[in-house]
Amino acid sequence: MTDLHAQLPFSAGPRSVADLFGEDSNDSQALWFKKDVFMQPDFDSESYIADLRRFVALETLRAELRGHLALLKNELVELINRDYADFVNLSTKLVDVEGAVLRMRTPLTELRDKISSVRSSVDSSLQAVQDGLRRRAQASNSREILELLLDTSHVLSKVEKLMVELQSMPEEGAISHTEPGNKSSFSNGTVVEIAENGANLEETRSMLLERIASEMNRLKFYIARAQNLPFIQNMDKRIQSASLSLDKSLRRCFEIGLECHDESVIYNCLRAFAAIDNTNGAEETFRSTIVAPYIQKVIPSTPLKEVGGSIDILEEDYQQIKKFVEKDCKFLLDIAASANSGLHVFNFLANSILKEVLSAIQKGKAGALSPGKPAEFLMNYKSSMEFITFLEGFCFSKSAAGGFRLQPVYVDFVKQWNLGAYFTLRFQEIANCLESALVTSSIIPLDNSQNHQDGVLNLTVKQSIVLLECLHRCWRDDVYIASIADKFLRLTLQLLSRYSMWLSTGLAACRKGNTTSGTSGEGALVATLEDLIFIRHDIDLLVKEVNGSYLEHVMGLLASCPEEVLALVRQSILQASQGLINSVPIVLDVIIEAMVEKSVEVLRQLKGISATYRMTNKPLPVRHSPYVSGALQPLKTFLEGERAIYLTKETRNQILQSAAERITARYNELASELVTVARKTESSLQRIRQGAQRRGGTGTDSLDGNLSNTDKICMQLFLDVQEYGRRLSSIGVVATEIPAYTSLWQCVAPPGRQSSIQF
Fold first, then answer.
1. How many CA atoms does the CB half-sphere of 197 hold within 13 Å?
2. First and final CA of the chain: distance in angstroms?
3. Cα 399 from Cα 344, distance rounded (Å)
């Protein structure tokens, strides 16, 4: 054993002092080295090394791994030495292995053969069972088809038999009641049983028809399941004959019930119509029997020519039709709408009444649908919508009303009214009216008395009055249609925009002094200051009206719209009126600029002061120049004119203050220019005189003791500025609050009076 141990490659001597003294190797291993990790199924060497190298050197890790490998080899040698006998005998015990395999293969082969045999037997049995089930299913299917054909034949025979009984009944009106003991009148016990219950002839007939209809419904159900079979196809003629006969008899019985207002007969017939899914037949019968004769009287298909008035007005016709519906149609509508009746599938309102009315209008009064005469078209349209609302009043629920509106006849009736063409005509009328007023290049003021007679917000210009009339006309009852409210709102905004554009374009041309006519009414406004007063006055009134009562009127007409829609409508109208508000400063600026130009024309006379004192030896002035009296006269005349009453106090003060500031600024420019030129000229002349005196050897200038011409000019301007300040005060303007006046005073005042302004 010792020799063999020495020969094994796994043997090794002690590798450390711990091994030599028999100490536990685990005690010599580092704490971070866990050998259990190698036994984990998901152990990954690369991950293990990558984790340890962050805090352990690779040399140290290699040493630990080699030590662990040596330990494992020692354990393996110990295990082999401990069970060495078994290890050696392992090869000696493995004898006759092939024989053992053959002995085990034989029973397994036999078992496989038996299993294959059983499997074949089971497969054959399964196939037999499946064939049996298939034949059984085919037999069952054939049986079902046979039963279906038998039931179909039986039901068809029953229908034909009942039809024979129906045809054998006496005609309507022959008898009113059947004698209980008289059974010879009928050939079948079914009719006799019904008659013995005390029912009249037509009620008996309707009950029999309802029974036939029920059987016909069964027959249709059977045919739908086997319609491709030859047996069914051979019975097609019989089926068609029975169906036509039933439909004819049912229609006739229903007509009699309608004429007699027999609720029992009508109820039975309607249930029969519903059973065979022939609602159109009942609706058409009611239309042709009850509705059409009366409607033809009200609206003949060949209209008669009337003397005077219009033959295409539908108001009176609708009134008569409403009375007819309440009197002669309501009983049927109540029957069809009765609870738990199962008759809600009928829609007599649309497919009988409305359909006949539409047909009569198209044939007898087609002109009522034409928008060529907008006034009559609107009357007819509103009358028609009221009639539609009247018919909807007979609907027993909201869902029924919704179903009525979804009917093709209802949709077709609404489409007959060409609202797009109607609006186009109204648009042309209203837009052309405003365009005709704006095409002129001049403002047309109206007589104040006429203005008050018209009662149009005290507007003063024809264009403004036409605009307001057009705006109101868009929403008048004789023009406005709620279903196209969006189009009328757009027209309203277009009218306001067109007026604002005309106003802004004209004012811009007035400011430039362009009086030539433009294209399409876009020419300059030929307007006086007084005309512009009217424009300013009208803008205030238009904005007040549009943003006030007019807007509230529009919102009232659109009250049924959602809140978000109403908010957008309000915002759009206010935004459109903002164009008028934006024109106010421009109007005032044009007015002020025109008055400034008039005053500046007068102020330019101050240029003559320089010539007066240079051409003549005039003494020092003692009073102001004549032009000062007229400098502010245009502004004063404007504010005191009879048309100035159309300006508010605030506007008057604004014009006065702004015009005074601009006039004073221009006055300052002219005076400063005049003084500057005079001083430059005086300086040049002084240098020339001094040069001449030096060449002539003369003494001082003889004029040194006198005032120069520049001083005289400045004194004259000073007197004029004082008078100008007094005239500003007379019209209500504080001159000292105008910066340009202070600058003007300092420019012309003597050196001792520049600091204090007194006049």
1. 10
2. 148
3. 11
pLDDT tens, position by position, 426-480: 999 999 999 999 887 678 877 554 444 444 448 888 999 999 999 999 999 999 9
Domain closes at, from 45, 78, 93: 93
550 and 485, same structural domain? yes
Contact partners, residue 347, CB within 8 Å, separation at least 6: 279, 283, 403, 404, 407
Query: What are 423's two structure tokens?
Result: 């609006």
Predicted TM-score (pTM) of the model is 0.69
SS (H, E, C) 647-689: CCHHHHHHHHHHHHHHHHHHHHHHHHHHHHHHHHHHHHHHHHH
Question: Any idea what the Cα angle at residue 463 is, between residues 458 and 468, rounded to 5°?
Answer: 60
Q: 575 and 496 in contact (C-beta within 8 Å)?
A: no
d(CA 586, CA 503): 10
Which among 521, 367, 323 is positioned nearest to 441, based on CA atoms?
Answer: 521
Residue type present at position 300: P
Q: Which domain holds residue 26?
A: 2-93
pLDDT at 352 over 70: yes
Q: Residue 519 burial (CB < 10 Å; 0-12/13-18/19+)? A: exposed
Which H, E and C letters describe 481-516, residue by residue? CHHHHHHHHHHHHHHHHHHHHHHHHHHHHHHHCCCC
Together in a domain, 660 and 557: no
